[in-house]
Amino acid sequence: MSRIFEKEAKVTHVITLSVDKARALENPLRAAMLDLLSEKPMSVEELTKELKRFGKKYNKAPTTVRHHLDLLKKSGLIELVKVEETGGAVLKYYAARARFYGYETPQDFEEKLKEAIKFSSDKILNLINELATKYKEPIEKTANQLKPCPYCSSKHFKEYVILEILQRAIAEAINRPKTLERKT
Predict the structure, then answer these.
(1) Of 42, 57, 82, 129, which is most buried by a Cβ count within 10 Å?
(2) What domains are there in the chain, each with its CATH number?
(3) Cut 0.70: pTM above it
(4) Does 136 have pLDDT greater than 50?
């Protein structure tokens, strides 16, 4: 048998996402809603109005928006942050618990940014090792509480816990003022 093609298999992305969260994000409307709610808390009415700006495809009735909000809430991607009573009506305000970046990276991304990736990789490896040493006990305790994924054979529980720590730390960092010249 002669080999026609072979390429080294290399993991270039790490995704920590529950199946419920993945299902919630499979719908472009819910992804748009999550994006809007990551900017500021909104009521169903405000969200319905904002979605109309994205075009006909996103022009939905408030009942439809409520349904999609419920799915996002059940997945843990959004939460209820405020309830107001106004003129006999109750307004509920929701906000994102996660920020979704749904961009397609250019094909030459790794080539253009390989030095930045290498630099970051070295720093992150040091941070991972420091986390694994300094917080060994709570990481192991949390990892032992995880159940295997019903869709795969992976049992990288400690890696998952460390990745969740890093992702939450990144989220906390980008929410701080003056991060990456954020537009207000």
Answers:
(1) 42
(2) 19-96 (1.10.10.10), 109-174 (no CATH)
(3) yes
(4) yes
For residue 180, pLDDT beyond 90: no
Query: Which pLDDT score is estimated for 152?
Result: 66
Pick from 19, 13, 40: nearest CA to 151: 19
Question: Tell me, what DSSP letter sits at residue 180?
Answer: T
CA atoms within 13 A on the CB side of 182: 9
User: Tell me: the pLDDT tens digits for 14-38?
Assistant: 777 888 899 999 999 999 999 999 9
Which candidate, 1, 55, 2, 7, places its Cα nearest to that of 29?
55
Closest to 93 measured CA to CA, from 103, 79, 104, 107: 79
Q: Measuring CA to CA, which residue among 57, 38, 40, 58 is closest to residue 48?
A: 58
- Helices (DSSP H) in 98-156: which residue ranges? 109-134, 136-145
- Given a cut of 80, is residue 120 above it in pLDDT? yes
For residues 19 and 74, the answer to whether their CB atoms sit within 8 Å is no
The separation between the first and the last C-alpha atoms of the chain, rounded to the nearest angstrom, is: 61
Give CA–CA dist 96/75, Å, rounded: 11
Q: How far is CA 46 from the centre of its chain?
A: 23
